[in-house]
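User: Before I run my own analysis I want an independent prediction to cross-check against. Here's the chain; please return only the structure tokens and, at the end, one sentence I can use as a sanity check.
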Amino acid sequence: MLFAEIIHPKKFKRKAIKCKECGLTYPKKEYSSLFSNYKLKYFYVKDMDGNQLICHNCLFDLLKRLSFGEPVKFVVVSEEHEYIIEFYPENYLTEFLEGENEGYKEEDSMDDFLRDLE
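Assistant: Structure tokens:
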């Protein structure tokens, strides 16, 4: 099972944070603002190369690749909770929609997902 640990801005020591997969980079202060407004979360994901730092979109792209079209369970670790989540690849689009529901079908909301991971 895949484990993804949320990176909280207040505990991140570097001046900027960068996704290893897509290169999305923000200064710590901007990441803190985006994190607080449920727009962006970065994760440490353990794989064969150790802990990889990736953004939430790349996390879902990784899950889609690992799923082979079938639902896959993964664990998200926050400061206070562990969430077991079942990822359904058919609900995640590789071609992004425009607007705030980017990467999701219209009935899903990335903001809601990120807000739920407290």
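Sanity check: The chain has three helices and seven strands.
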